[in-house]
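Thread: "does anyone have the structure for this chain?"

Original post by V.I.:
We have the sequence but no experimental structure in hand. Need at least a predicted one for the grant figures.
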Amino acid sequence: MDIPKFLEINGRKYHDHIALVDNNRRLTYGEVDKMVNALAHSFLQHDLTFGDKIILLLPNSIDWAITYLTILRIGGIAVPINTKLKTDELLYIIEDSDAKAVIFDSDFSNAVHPIAEKHPSLIWVATGNITFPSFSLAEWIKLGSTRDVDLPLQSEDDASIIYTSGTTGKPKGVLFTHQNILSAATMMAMETSMKPESKILHMMPLSHSAPLHLMFVAGLIVGGTHIFSTQFTPQDLLSLVSNEKITHFFGAPVAYLITAKHPELKKYDLSSVQYWVYGGAPLSKEDVIFIQKQFQTDRLMGVYGLTEAGPNGTYLAPHEHPKKAGSIGRRAALFCEITLLDDHGNPVKDGEIGEIALRGESLMKGYYKNLEATMMTYKKGWLLTGDLAMRDDDGFYWIIDRKKDVIITGGVNVYPKEVEDILKSHPMVLDVSVIGIPHPDWGETVKAFVVLNAHIEDPSDILHSFVSERLAEYKCPRLYEFVKDLPRNANGKVLKHQLRQLSV
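Reply from O.Q.:
Generated one for you, tokens below.
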């Protein structure tokens, strides 16, 4: 089955049930289905049809949801883009994806205008009035016919291209079919018991695979209610959860940690939440205890995966957090398998470090226009994640580091994450990233980029003494560079390739 089919069914089945909430605007499933039909007919009248790539440059909103579902209803391929990207970053994705149209929020017209001048043949559709020629999204919805769109789709049809965060260079387009996405969405719906009564809060950008596939599409297929917020702030999170009686929320660990420090958190009723889902990085046991105490909950759930996997992977259930916080769980989620492989593609034993490999229906069809990179990502039917991990005696998986980030000094492996965790535990360290840089004798040497929380005399000596008391000498950074902040992408991941360039 295809994704828009679930909207069509729910438009009949849950005709008067609230589907989308955006500030004071509320639409039922019946209303959403008609609006998607109307916009779809306008798309078709302007020669946007099956197989066309359409850029979606909108914040989390009802307009975003209507446009995304419309693109899929006409058999198009949605290319959602993070709204925080700059003009050059947008231009790269627009050109690389072979986009035929760009649907954008008028607030981003300054970033879009130079691209429109360079590519006037593209179809430009805006949410409001702008200075350069474009169509109006509201007018297209208003003028389009609400009759059903007679365009049969298959589950194997391409549905979307999501661009990776580009932590090692230019982002790659990850191509998904309807079946890939529905596999990941169905997994999440079942693992977190989503129902029509569920209320799902979207604060993380829907241009990323986890918020989009695991939360939005999952909630769509069960007929749940979606509440949108254009941004994340602790205050907005607490207010929306309390006022809308949210049952499901997905956020990065930092969203929970920041909100847990809100001075008036205890005044809000958060008891409606059934699953506080986090992903992108594990939470330490200390962080879990702190968040659970502040939120007064035992419903934290960690998910591990990557865009190329749907994302599907593993999860750490709420009841597993007291003993195994910091791990990514002990079994693959529904429809997925996991193993740890050595460099030759053979499984490693418990207690040994291997690369996480995943297998299942949600895995990407491939990188768009990049067969070589696609083939390098797969080995014997398994998707290689680039994450190194170890499985303990209880069967739980613990991430050690990124494979590409491992430092080899004097023939010995140093895992940056281990060094970073030690440095972060020092009270004067606000943020840190560790990389390997070339060394004429040792191959590589360890360097730490450190953000301090205050001016301190001789910080290198202090940190070297601190680390050398806790780690073997070969793991200790030989070089320190103190910076105001670390370069990060839209997901908050450190751009280590930029740090390496600074060290050349």
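V.I.: this helps a lot. The longest helix spans residues 29-45.
O.Q.: and The mean pLDDT is 93.
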